[in-house]
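Contributing new complexes? Match this layout with alpha-D-glucopyranose.
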Amino acid sequence: MAVQKLWWKHGVVYQIYPRSFKDSNADGIGDLEGIISKLDYLQELGIDAIWLSPIYPSPDADFGYDVADYRDIDPKYGDLESFQRFQSEAHKRNIKVIMDLVLNHSSDQHKWFVEARQSKDNPYRDYYIWADGKNGKAPNNWGAIFGGSAWNWDEQAQQYYLHLFYEGQPDLNWRNPKLYQEMMDIFRFWCDRGVDGFRLDVFNLYYKDKDLRDNPRRFPPTPPFGRIYDWQDHLYDFDQPEMLPALEDIRKILDSYPERYAVGETYPEVADTVTSYAAPGRLHAAFNFAFLHNDWKAKQFLKTIQFWEAPENAEIQPTYVLGNHDVPRPATRYAKGKEDARMKVAAVMLLTLRGTPYIYYGDEIGQRDIPVRRRKDIQDPIGKRYFPLMKGRDGCRAPMQWDASDNAGFTSAEVKPWLPVHKDHTHRNVVAQTNDPDSLLNQYKTLIKLRKENSALYAGDLTLIDLNSSDILAYTRSSAEQTVFICLNFSNKTQMIHLPKEFTQATLLYSTHKKALTDPLENTYSLQANEAIILQQ
Ligand code: GLC
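Output block (do not edit by hand):
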């Protein structure tokens, strides 16, 4: 029986960082009109949904992840009307729209916080988490993820407020029923406007310990966001049990509309708890970030896949991500010099695993991070604060490279874009790769198409195959109609592989290296350096 296709489960999602995708009004910052003008490109690429990083009004202390109004669009990106147009143009092309909801904290410019800090009896005071100091110091030992104490003394309020990120991102108090209601209404607001899904920013931090107890010290410290942190176990500020009923309420709202979706952002710290968040009746999926931190080693990717394929996780929809706006791009991490060979292997892996693939804008042409050399050029506050220990996240947020012109077709040539375009845009760009049949971009297109057309690839079960080589990752995907075999060579050496019995007479559905098989397959296949293949029985 044919599987019923669900966009969020069987489709491919594309993340746009709106500041950097396409600028239509020559102010150096991308916008909704710009995105609308590139929807044909995205349709041609074959993606099923766009996840937009936040576009709500924001003073940009953390580039949109500090929201000043959850029910509007920042004028630098457009307005509610242009958002509706963007959405209906996307829908016309069968592309769904996922909004980024940042509900752990707001901006300190949000009217709730402006009110809250005025006095203890202000009706908005309890929308945030306030506390008195202890012995002239912060109320407890919690550290902010972007460094320093998580507490900020507010002169006007005469109390400390909690911010698990920047001072400009005060944490919202989900224990307050009024705030809780506001949060639920925000989901309804965007669902009513036709939004198809949500990416929930750091949702596992929504609740904090009622008594604000100290976190135990951790030894040795571990680095989730680079080298600035982390010397504590997040017993009391992450993953509190109250999160689960809240997710169930969110899900009920989503389920009262047709085909709505929510994917949650959690950090690897909570690999085990992720599965309880993405369980039936809660989120549809939770990000799996392991790939962002893996070295280019088949064994490491294997370990991540094994986790998601374990029988106890069978009901959970995996997501696979190679890049996003918080970490160096995959080509910067894995590709060697100008070569895209590894990027092609990575693309085959991303698009043939069981789970929803997320592509970060520009990774389909193998964009590299821009170099970050001087503190004064840095935009990301993490980099501003910690350079040179940490350079921040500007590297992976540079403008999309559309063509070879000055400013890469991102904005007009006379304008200074908010971040510089990568020098290599003169040869690495969408136009050049569209015209080159062997480019990474054309490979992405072919693979997405294959994934769409082959039920084994979009919906099949996955079985890992051990080929006795630490450089090779191999698996089959099988649906009721077909079984395919995928084999990825992570090494720079040719590997002679023994094919599973059922594939000795197989045909080549895809190879990063060959157009067709020249010799009929027998028991073995000579897998070239950095070659990835898909065989069909
Ligand atoms: C998430 C976002 C990151 C942001 C942080 C605070 O981790 O991906 O960009 O800085 O949350 O909202």
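Reviewers usually confirm one structural detail per submission. For this one: Residues 62, 65, 102, 165, 201-202, 265, 325-326 surround alpha-D-glucopyranose (CB under 6 Å).
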